[in-house]
């Protein structure tokens, strides 16, 4: 979820100032995505620049609330109507880490996999414990976020199992087998038999 669209969705509820937006954002995501107040104000400035929100007069407490504009509502509706593409998501740091571990001398890839599996299992147990608590209908946004985290952790464990099985079938490539630089075709000697 982009912070930009998250703030627009919150402002659709009604005008809010920065600290209210931060608190509402964190509450809506079940505090799984802590938001820096600087990110809120930077994003609000960009949204205002783009005509998607407008500032209102300061209240008695000196806070300046913002409200969504009609172009902001259109942008929000477009975001909700557009599926999230796999290419729009951040890079998978774990996949990159394992790929690099395979080709880095001195790294025991199986240990990297096991360490990650242990951490992911602990997280899954914590998510499951949180899910077992009694909740109210008002907690549905948090439950949906929690369910997503559970499914992602389960998928990561299955993927780690797959990685471990692949490591058993195929030994990691030797670091020497991966050239540091591509050979220069103009300077390489061609041997003739």
Query: Runs with pLDDT <50, length 5+?
Result: 182-193
Task: Count every helix, treating DSSP H or I runs of 4 or more residues as helices.
Answer: 7
Mean pLDDT: 82
**Helix and strand sequence:** HHHEEHHHH
| Widest sheet: strand ordering | 1-2
Query: Sheet with the most strands?
Result: 2 strands, antiparallel
Question: Can you lay out the helices and strands and say which pair or pack?
Answer:
Blueprint: H1 3-13, H2 18-28, H3 37-49, E1 53-55, E2 66-68, H4 70-81, H5 93-103, H6 109-131, H7 140-169
Antiparallel strand pairs: 1-2
Q: How would you summarize this macromolecular structure in one to three sentences?
A:
The chain is built from 7 helices and 2 strands; from the N terminus they run H-H-H-E-E-H-H-H-H. By secondary structure, it is mainly alpha-helical.
Describe this structure in words.
The protein is built from seven helices and two strands; from the N terminus they run H-H-H-E-E-H-H-H-H. It has helices spanning 3-13, 18-28, 37-49, 70-81, 93-103, 109-131, 140-169, and strands at residues 53-55, 66-68. The protein has a two-stranded antiparallel sheet. Helix 1 crosses helix 4 (70-81). It is elongated, with a radius of gyration of 24 Å.
Summary keywords:
58% helix; 2 strands; mainly alpha; 7 helices; disordered C terminus; 193 residues; two-stranded antiparallel ribbon
């Amino acid at each position: 979820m982009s912070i930009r669209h998250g703030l627009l969705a919150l402002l659709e509820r009604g005008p809010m100032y920065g600290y209210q937006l931060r608190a509402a954002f964190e509450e809506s995501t079940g505090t799984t995505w802590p938001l820096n107040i600087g990110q809120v104000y930077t994003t609000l400035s960009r949204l205002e620049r783009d005509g998607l929100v407008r500032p209102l007069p300061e209240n008695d407490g000196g806070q300046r609330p913002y409200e969504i504009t009609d172009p902001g509502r259109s942008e929000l509706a477009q975001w909700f109507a557009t599926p999230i593409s796999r290419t729009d998501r951040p890079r998978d740091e774990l996949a990159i880490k394992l790929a690099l571990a395979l080709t880095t001398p001195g790294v025991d890839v199986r240990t990297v996999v096991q360490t990650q599996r242990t951490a992911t299992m602990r997280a899954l147990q914590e998510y499951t414990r949180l899910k077992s608590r009694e909740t109210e209908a008002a907690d549905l946004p948090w439950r949906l976020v929690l369910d997503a985290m559970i499914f992602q952790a389960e998928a990561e464990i299955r993927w780690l199992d797959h990685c471990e099985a692949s490591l058993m079938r195929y030994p990691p490539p030797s670091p020497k087998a991966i050239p540091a630089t591509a050979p220069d075709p103009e300077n390489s000697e061609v041997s003739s038999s």
